[in-house]
Design goal:
Elements lengths: L7 H7 L8 H11 L9 H7 L11 H10 L12 H7 L10 H9 L12 H8 L7 H12 L10 H12 L5 E6 L6 H15 L3 E6 L6 H7 L2 E3 L6 H7 L6 E3 L8 H6 L4 E5 L3 H6 L3 H9 L3 E4 L2 H11 L3 E2 L11 H12 L5 E5 L8 H14 L4 E5 L4 H12 L4 E5 L4 H7 L2 E4 L3 E2 L3 H8 L4 E4 L2 E2 L9 E4 L4 H14 L2 H14 L2 H20 L1
Parallel strand pairs: 1-2, 1-4, 2-3, 4-5, 5-6, 6-7, 8-9, 8-11, 9-10, 11-13, 12-14, 13-15
Helix pairs in contact: 7-8, 9-12, 17-20, 18-19, 18-22, 20-21
Pfam family, one: Glyco_trans_1_4
GO molecular function, one term: glycosyltransferase activity
Organism: Gemmobacter fulvus
């Protein structure tokens, strides 16, 4: 009877019962104590909302809810689950009637449907969850509410936003604002965190302005206050609330829309452009960049080739190659990776990033299938989240027997790179990518397609590029690179990367550019 509503894992963990959190416990004691049987049912709310819940002889409030629905009577199981709203919002569910709440529990949450006017599922999923994560309501109840996540955006006025930022500035005599599009475990957010940590080491006090959050939000909050525009903050108000002359870095063209208001409010501002020119055009971001530039923000590209590609639209641009901070990986992770590698009888190929069309996940799988023909014992690894398109492709590849590992985003990526022989760079558009440098930092070379890649011409000693579409040459180069890997080659590559990609030099360059912006404003 309780299958639709009782969640033993939730019940045991939520109420500190561990293995004692059984259905039997809930029926005998939990209901009487007001404990919730699952994330979609609030016992205390239901009893308050329906004081007649015992009239039908139900042993628990949850049992009454299920019995009433079975009898065709609509009931609300949780203050944020309104079955009448749910049916009105989604006409395709009109035939459910009283069972609407059960549909949300079993299917609707996973389909990112909103259960009531009080919970905006689409907002919550985009603002706080990983790109491939579903069930926003369940996340809110089990984790998000305790973390301060909002069930829906709450618009704040310019004055309210200014006051909130001013309060965050209190006690900060050296604030430094860093802006990005989100807190997903990907290149730009990770670089933003690295910049913030390096600035904090120099006695700056980071403050963050993001469009949305994500799985890395806690790491941002550990370094300083975080404002998410998607939650309803007013950008101009936030800019006004900053301490006068707060140095500001907008660390992606995707957030360039923030830069104009920040610059016009008197804050020296850089926009660090990591995206390739064709992507900027396709995403209609050049207008935001031009507006930021006109407002006094300085535009900086990651690679010289990007400056040349954007010169016609944005004029001469300075280039500042991002520094790299090796992500932490415990010694135990390297030991596990070494043991795993010794158990393999063939070469190991790896790639990383948010698996989508731009990252060339389909090209990675095509190369893997071709390499598998030559090396049946080869194994393939992709680190990072998969969107729906990529997940479908991965499922097809796995069904063919491809030895494909998909661990998702991992904190110990360096250990995974060290276990591989070659990094396969199949991106169609990529300004870096940082992951190639991370792999090289532990001695793993790359083979890539010479597509719209920012590091082309700057990779001597790291790897090699092959003409786009030449899969035969790509496979041959990957095979040769795997055979050539040795302890000596790995050591040489590690030394090369250490000398070429120091983060401290990058931070020096960023601060020098900000000083130049301040000097220009003064004159």
């Amino acid at each position: 009877m309780y299958d639709a509503i009782f969640d033993p894992a939730f019940y045991g963990q939520r109420h500190g019962l561990g293995d004692r959190g059984s259905l039997k416990h809930f029926i005998a004691r939990g209901d009487r104590l007001g404990l919730d049987p699952g994330p979609y049912f609030s016992t205390r709310y239901y009893k308050q909302r329906y004081p007649d819940w015992q009239v039908g002889g139900a042993a628990t409030a949850a049992a009454d809810f299920l019995q009433r629905i079975a009898a065709g009577e609509m009931r609300q199981p949780h203050p944020l689950i309104d079955p009448a709203y749910y049916l009105e919002r989604y006409p395709d569910l009109a035939g459910l009637g009283a069972a609407a709440a059960l549909h949300f529990m079993a299917h609707g949450d996973a389909e990112v449907r909103a259960p009531s006017a009080g919970f905006d599922a689409d907002f919550y999923q985009r603002c706080y969850l990983a790109l491939d994560q579903r069930q926003p309501f369940r996340h809110f109840i089990t984790e998000g509410q305790q973390l301060g996540h909002m069930p829906k955006p709450v618009p704040r006025s310019q004055a309210e936003s200014s006051a909130a930022m001013a309060q965050a500035m209190a006690g900060r005599d050296r604030p430094f604002l860093l802006c990005a599009h989100d807190a997903q475990p990907a290149g730009v957010p990770l670089l933003t965190l690295d910049l913030a940590a390096a600035l904090a080491d120099r006695s700056w006090q980071p403050v963050f302005l993001l469009h949305r959050g994500g799985p890395l939000l806690d790491r941002f909050r550990a370094l300083g206050p975080v404002f998410l525009l998607a939650e309803g903050w007013d950008l101009r108000g936030l800019a006004q609330g900053l301490a006068a002359g707060t140095p500001t870095v907008v660390n992606t063209a995707a957030a360039a829309g923030m830069a104009a208001d920040l610059a016009l409010a008197g804050h020296p501002c850089l926009v660090l452009i990591h995206e390739m020119a064709d992507y900027l055009r396709a995403q209609d971001l050049l207008g935001d960049l031009a507006t930021a530039q006109a407002a006094g923000a300085r535009l900086i590209v990651s690679m010289p080739s990007m400056a040349a590609a954007l010169a016609a639209e944005l004029g001469p641009l300075a280039a500042l190659r991002p520094g790299i901070k090796r992500p932490p990986a415990p010694l135990a992770a390297f030991r596990r990776a070494r043991r795993w590698r010794k158990a393999q009888s063939g070469p190991v190929f790896i790639s990383a990033g948010h698996a989508g069309w731009r990252k060339g996940f389909d090209l990675f799988l095509e190369a893997a299938q071709a390499l598998r023909v030559q090396h049946p014992e080869a194994r393939f690894i992709w680190l990072g989240a998969l969107d729906r398109w990529a997940r479908a492709l991965a499922d097809q590849a796995l069904a063919t027997g491809l030895a494909l590992e998909l661990p998702g985003f991992v904190a110990d990526s360096l250990a995974w790179y060290r276990a591989a022989d070659v990094y396969l760079l199949t991106s169609r558009q990529d300004p870096g990518p940082t992951t190639v440098i991370h792999a090289a930092a532990v001695g793993t070379p790359f083979v890539g397609y010479a597509a719209d890649i920012g590091i082309i011409g700057m990779t001597d000693g790291i790897g090699q590029f092959i003409a786009p579409g030449d899969r035969t040459a790509f496979v041959a180069a990957a095979t040769a690179a795997a055979r050539a890997v040795s302890r000596a080659s790995r050591l040489a590559l590690r030394r090369h990367i250490r000398a070429e990609t120091a983060l401290e030099a990058y931070v020096d360059g960023v601060l020098a550019q900000l000083m130049a912006v301040s000097a220009d404003a003064a004159t």
